[in-house]
Write a structure and sequence with these properties.
Layout (H helix, E strand, L loop, with lengths): L10 E5 L2 E4 L3 E6 L7 E4 L5 E6 L8 E2 L7 E6 L3 E6 L2 E7 L8 H9 L14 E7 L2 E7 L4 E2 H4 L5 H18 L3 E2 L26 H10 L7 E4 L8 E4 L5 E4 L6 E3 L1 H10 L12 H4 L1 H12 L6 H17 L1
Antiparallel strand pairs: 1-2, 1-6, 2-3, 3-5, 4-5, 7-8, 8-9, 9-11, 10-11, 12-15, 13-14, 14-17, 15-16
Helix pairs in contact: 3-7, 5-7
């Protein structure tokens, strides 16, 4: 059995118009839309089609620099993403098999049987599969640019509109409640920022609940939250006003309401990644959001969280 390639090498090129994904899927570029199956637009007049790969010994090579398919995100060998026309492919190593899958969350949100569908743009699931302990997810593209790309050229008034819209989205999602910390299907919520430093593997309700209580969050009920509203996951479409969408729903689930604002207060991973040493500028986005959340009545436990985080890291360094 051949060795498993790194996640970032999940797509191999056959030729200019065809690719093999994970050794199990065939991606093709077509000038005519098929009558059935999984396909989507390239953003122009052509299409991409996806099908299961028949046994094939066709020679392949890594993606060329001129390929229509390009890597847009590479997080070590944990996950990677590619833009393919008007769709994205995400491939992830399944380190936590019990966690809620992103396609389940997206389908849950789009289904009116689960409550009002979101009033803001989110991706639609095109295809998903798992193979060799890896998760493959194709989703539609949300129109616009990432907030990180758009923010430097936005007017102050537009900045404020964007902040307020994200706070409104937090409030909209939080109307959905549950009696445990979990994903939308009851699976584990892999929220690394809501568990103690040096904690054992896993994201059980009991482990996360104990930590939330330790930092004095109110745990009487739990509300739905995206949990990763950093500037690369907020999509801004300025073609008609300021339309705000959200992508990357893999860490979405029910959490204590205080966690919503607390996450914006403490999570430096949601800073802008601008080429500057200006810390205040890099924190501008999440600071604005947490202040507007405060005005909307959201509480936070940032001081207790920071104290517990420092304590955990100090203990680890002395062991």
């Amino acid at each position: 059995m051949p060795a498993l390639r790194p996640v970032r090498e999940s797509i191999l090129e056959i030729d200019d118009n065809s690719w093999i994904i994970g050794g199990v899927l065939l991606l093709s570029y077509k000038t005519i839309a098929p009558s059935s199956g999984c396909f989507w637009s390239d953003g122009g007049s052509a299409f991409y089609t996806l099908s299961e790969l028949a046994h094939s010994q066709q020679p392949t090579h890594p993606l060329s620099s001129t390929s229509r398919v390009q890597l847009v995100h590479d997080a070590g060998d944990c996950n990677a993403a590619w833009r393919i026309g008007e769709a994205f492919l995400k491939v992830q190593a399944l380190s936590t098999p019990s966690r809620t899958r992103e396609h389940i969350t997206l389908n849950y949100l789009h289904d009116p049987a689960n409550g009002s569908v979101p009033t803001f743009p989110i991706p639609r699931v095109l295809y998903h599969t798992e193979h060799d302990n890896r998760y493959y997810l194709f989703t539609s593209r949300v129109p616009g640019n990432t907030l990180e790309k758009a923010w430097p050229n936005m007017e102050e008034e537009t900045n404020q509109v964007c902040v307020r819209r994200v706070v409104d989205i937090c409030k909209e999602l939080a109307q959905r409640e549950n009696n445990k910390i979990c994903g939308v299907d009851g699976g584990d919520l892999s929220e690394n920022w809501m568990k103690p430093p040096q904690a054992p593997d896993g994201y059980s309700h009991e482990m996360l609940l104990a930590y939330c209580k330790e930092v004095e969050m109110n745990c009487d009920s739990f509300v739905l939250h995206h949990c990763d509203m950093g500037p690369t996951n907020v999509i801004i479409d300025l073609t008609e006003g300021c339309k705000v969408g959200l992508v990357d729903w893999e860490v979405t689930g029910f959490v204590p309401k205080e966690w919503i604002r607390t996450k914006f207060c403490v999570c430096w991973a949601m800073n802008f990644d601008f080429p500057s040493d200006d810390v205040k500028k890099s924190m501008d986005w999440r600071q604005r959001v947490q202040l507007d959340l405060e005005r909307q009545g959201f509480l936070e436990v940032a001081e207790a969280w920071n104290s517990r985080f420092s304590k955990g890291n100090s203990s680890a360094s002395t062991n």
